[in-house]
Amino acid sequence: MKPLIKTPLSFAVSAALAGMMLPTLALAQDDAADAEVEEVIVTGSRIAKQDFVSNSPVATVGREQFVLTNTINTEALLNSLPQTVPGLDRTSNNPGNGTATVDLRGLGANRTLVLIDGKRVTPTSSSGIVDINSIPASLVKSVEVLTGGASAVYGSDAVAGVVNFILRDDFEGVELNMSTEQTEKGDAGLSTIDLTIGGNFGGDRGNAVLNLQWTDREDLFQGDRDFSTFAQFDDTDANGNPILIDGGSSGIPGLSIFNGGLAGYSPSAGVTFGQDGSIRPFETGTPNDFYNYAPVNYIQLPQTRYQATALASFELTENLEVYSKVLYTSSSVPQQLAPTPIFQTSEFTIDGSPFLTPEAQQVLSDGIGSGIDTDGDGIDDTGSALVRRRLLEVGPRVSDSKFNSFQFQVGAKGAITDSWSYDVYYQIGQVDSIETQLGNVNRDRFNQALLLDLSDPTGGTCANPSSNGSTVGCSPINIFGEGNISEAGAAYLRTAVSSSALYEQEVVGATVSGDLFSLPGGPIGVAVGYEHIDNSFRFRPSQDLAAGTIAGFNGAPAVSGKYNEASYFVEAYFPILRDLPLVSLLDVSAAYRYSDFSTVGGLDNYKIDFSYAPIDSLRFRGSFSTASRAPNIGELFSPQGEGFPGSKDPCAAEGNPTADVAAICQATGVAASDVGSPALNLPAGQVRQLSGGNPDLEQEDADTYTLGVVFTPSVIDGLSVSVDYFDIEIEGYIASFGGGANNVLNTCYDPASAFGGIGSQFCDVVSRRADGTIESVSVTSQNVAGQTLTGFDVQAQYVLEGLGGTWALNYLATFTEESDFTPFDGADTIECAGKFGQDCGEPLPEYNHRATVNYARNNWTAQVVWRHIGSTDDDDENNTYFVEKLDSEDYIDASARYEFSNGMSLMAGVDNLMDSNPPILGDNQEQANTYPATYDVFGRTYFVRFGWEM
Questions:
Q1: Domains, the chain, ranges and CATH?
Q2: Contact, 60 vs 144, CB < 8 A?
Q3: 403 vs 391: CA distance, rounded Å
Q4: Which tens digits make up the pLDDT trace of 31-59?
Q5: Cα dihedral across residues 433, 438, 443, 449: positive or negative
Q6: Digit-coded pLDDT (tens) for 301-313
Q7: How far is residue 912's CA from residue 891's CA, in Å, rounded to a whole number?
Q8: What is the DSSP letter of 134?
């Protein structure tokens, strides 16, 4: 069978493993000392070596894995690796921004450096994160994943490691691929067509490759799946036991008022209204009056994407080769949420309102009236209350994000002498994005439309008829009862919101590498170089979005900033001993990098690693490295903006406050009668968090240790096993004050905490309204946190012959022992290994694995993939959630491919063969009652792929 590609490690493994996920394992060398062996450069080093490729664990995903798993978006395959915690992907509707990211070790996508052919990819956002939608999956030869600090070699952002996409830059011929997939239910379709044309020219001195790709991804709504049709939340039964019920939050289609003092109604439950303006108690049990926001939310974001990639190289002389690369991606990814929930204190007309029954007018006047009764009829003119309403009449919230990324690279490389070479290049890239939002509501116009001109008995005129920035004049809104807002009123509330962003990056780099004098084990390899990087970003929002005067999507102020860095680096490889008794191989390598940032000044990073093989089949390896991450543009220059992370109010019923907590609640603005009230429960289980940048930030510093063993027993031909221990410790970790709003609330209202309590800085940043509900929690970025991560990576592969073909078994696993986050010096450590939830976020099991069985015979190739996701516990030790533990999940994917003699091929496969459903959660969910980036939310999915290579 003709292999699809020749991997960089092909000299060390059987050709049958081409394209499989290969660990960088030591293999016995040829007995002939002068055997011709290909020199390679592997991620983590700039020195080409004939021997073992890396002293740090590197996992390689080859092209055949992309083909056999029908990977169209690269994050889908990367997120299945146990070294990664899923970042943003096709399910990321809320939270999400239309991009796709890769997150090594769960340390954050902004701490994972993304490269193409060893060189940086232009970021998309102010956080410096790369949208890997811009990677042309159909042109990927392999992906090398180096976990652990790599700043000494590649510079800032490589704290968690490096993901290096290696492209097929020497393709010859014409290749057409078409694929489509669809779930067993006939939805969530994903189709793509790509064409690759390449060939040599100039007497085989040059090569050019052009790749074109089109991708179309259909939408899928939460309402299309039984487990996500109803937004579920946690409650308690009559005995106080946690139960999971269908419902929603953030207001109902008709108005609800949570405000004590309404005669004849429970002060904790509040009231709501019928369509005729009548008043009744708000029901919170089963059934309830909560709005079910789930069905109209996406569970798969639609996408339309066009990509064009061109690669070219030409040998002008024996010692000079010029090369270039152009990548272009246009991607459109909408998001859709349920209609806007408005939650604010507003004044509205009571006396004479045609929207309220006389009984409702009297109840509201007695409880929340203004005290002004102009006509003396015993009913106040207006009232003021904290109101919640789901504005169905305005329509769903739709955010349409369009991204255009362009990256151009030109360079020259060649030989200086027989043993020295050079590589110089210039690269420029930019990502511009435009976002338009529908469904937002102007808060000021909402308030204006609640006050009526009573000279109009129909209620059709506003007391203040001005347009207030709208394209139409003020039209009153009847918020009392579902469906009562007129189209004119809805049109007045709507506000057009848009934004544009542009990230630009310019890179100049040069490297000279070669051999010095020889040691007993071989020549010393050296690489020295220089790199200069300019980064700039600007974000321009429309007025309402910048001012935060909208309800719907989050407000976002303008951001603008830039910085540059100049780096000098040196790397050396010392093959000390070789082919001696008890010393088959002993080598050491070291690297040093000095980077001068315009923002944080000079940074030093270094690494040292070793490899010792007493015999050919056994090798020990280890490394120590430092890594730094300079603060990104968003962390430095962002003004204050808002977000809505998951949390709960310790003073509310959901917080179950004790007497000691109640004392803090009262001291921070909660009336004694309201402590423990459901009226204080956070809408949708989210708190309004105000955060912003800090121009005085310094860099994050990390130390990474690895120690491992590689075993390739000669008595079992084809078997290779490696076990590597890793230890990463980050100091000066940039985080929001106090670890974010949820931790601020927990610390403020913890009587036992030395940092919380009455008068503490944690309580000072919590703002409450007059009725005691939380208005916002204000946090800013600081170098205050710390992160520690330890565990083991295990890789194994076994190649054998049997049943007339070649079998390749591959196993890749990660055991996470410790993942501890300290929000600030002296704070309690948040332990996230084996946890998920409000503090830890995405589930981080203590054990994950990905195992494959591949069988190849003649023109047939078949594969089975077993993905295991370990169990996790909720990180809230005092939770009252119905679901406190997520059991382990196993997914089986299978595919088979046949290659015809005329160059055509046909492949078919199925993902989630056992049709496993995701675990279902309540208030401790992320989206769709689960964590959809971690667990399969689509069900059994079939795919077909046709290829033709000419």
A1: 15-168+197-219+301-336+400-436+501-630+699-739+781-831 (2.40.170.20), 252-289+343-390+456-493 (no CATH), 631-692+741-771 (no CATH)
A2: yes
A3: 30
A4: 333 334 456 677 788 887 654 457 888 88
A5: positive
A6: 999 999 999 999 9
A7: 5
A8: G
